[in-house]
Amino acid sequence: MKLNKREIIAKRIAQELEAGDVVNLGVGIPTLVSSFLEGKKVYLQSENGLIGMGPPPEENAVDIDLIDAGKTPVSITKGASFFDSADSFGMIRGGHLNVAILGILQIDKSGEIANWAVPNQPILGVGGAMDLVAGAKKVIVASTLFAKDGSSKLVDQLTYESSGERKVDLFVSEYATFMFTSEGVKVVDLYGDLTIEALIEKVGLPLLYEVEIAK
C-alpha cells in the first residue's frame, strides 16, 4: 500500500526510536508514529496523563475516556499508566523523556522551531510545546516541508513566535530528513520525488549533503 505524505514522515521517524525509549507524541503527524513501530517496545507518552499509548483503535473499539493531548481516541498497551498533569509535566521538565516528536509551523536554519502561534490569529492554547523543546533529551520535528501556499517551512529566520532557544535534533519531512550542524543544514537522507538540486531550489537555502545523496 502506498503511503501518503503524513505516513511517510511517521514511518521514517519510527526508525529513529530505540527499544525502551519514553517518547512524547505531539498533535497531528506525530500521533501516526505509533502505527509504524513494528513491534519495537517503546513507551509512548501523552502530556495529558498517559504512558503506554497504542495505535489508533478500531472504530468499534473507541473509548471516549481514552484520548491523547489532541483529543484523538487512542488505545493503550499492557502496563499503561495514568497520572495527572502535574506528574506529566514533572516528567517532561525533569528530563525523563528520551524523545519528543513535535509538529511545526516553521523551523530556521539553526534548528529553532515555531509551533504554537500564528501572527494575527487567536491563540487557543500553548500546550506542552515549550516544555517539550526544553525538557526532552532528543527532539524530532515531524512536518510537511511546504505550507499550503507553497512556501518552505524551513526558513532562514523565524517569522513566527519561537517555541524556545533549544535546537531540534532532526526535521523529518516527506522529501528528506534534515540535521542542523554548526556548518549548516545537512540532508541526512533523501527519499521523496525531488532531486537534491530541486530540493535546494524549492527551499531557497543552501543545504549540505553527501555525494551519495546527489546521485
TrEMBL record:
Its domain of life reads Bacteria
Q: Which UniProt keywords apply?
A: Transferase
Q: Which residues cross the membrane?
A: none
Where along the sequence do coiled-coil regions lie?
none
InterPro entries per UniProt: CoA_trans_fam_I, CoA_transf_AS, NagB/RpiA_transferase-like
PANTHER family in alphabetical order: KETOACID-COENZYME A TRANSFERASE (PTHR13707), SUCCINYL-COA:3-KETOACID COENZYME A TRANSFERASE SUBUNIT B-RELATED (PTHR13707:SF57)
Please report the name of this protein according to its UniProt entry: Putative 3-oxoacid CoA transferase 2
Instruction: Provide the species name.
Output: Viridibacillus arenosi FSL R5-213
